[in-house]
User: Fold this.
Amino acid sequence: MDWLIPIIFGVAIVAVIAFAPLKTTTNISVSLFLFVLFWIAWPYHAAYNLAIAMKDGNVSTMENRVDWEHLRQGLRADLNATFLQNLSRSGSSSASGLAAVLAPAIINQMIDGYVTPQGMATLIAQKRQGKASDEKAGDRSSGERLDFSRIQYAFFDGGPFTFKVELQNEKPNQEALVFLFKWDGRWRLNRLVFPKDTFANALAKKPAPPASSSNRIAGSALAASNSSSAPAPIPST
Assistant:
């Protein structure tokens, strides 16, 4: 439907110039003012439309409002860069070399599987199910309305063809979550920039190492010795 917006606006400008009883210079000024007003409002409409689609899990709208290929490319680059930074601090050369070879393929496969309209719709549906269960349990603090209070910045950035939205981080004193919209005939989400610590914390989490065989044997021996040293029960008469 985005292609209808400039057509309707163009028709409105032609109507103003042709039928308004004003001077030519005035008509041009009014037309330019309307064009600037329209251009400023258009990305806000696109961002709001995408927010509604993300809340409702609307696959078709998310597919049209997001440049998925560029979005996946940016996330791959950010996640791989963060992983390599963490890897360089680990110190183990053999393990680091193997991880550096395998990790990009795993990261790419994960992003290709989840960062799609269908994948996002699935995650949104799971989140809504979790909220529904919380409400049944008595926690009704999570509403379905959009929270506009987190918006720190929403305007053009670096030119008239890039629109940036910054959302306040839920953690205090942390970087904002950035949404970049690009105009390519229509406004679409092109880039998603997470705070630096988002990927770093996720990659830094390591599962607890399993107990070694020697520890298990020692534990079993200790349990056996404790059971053998326990006094036998006195039979009742």
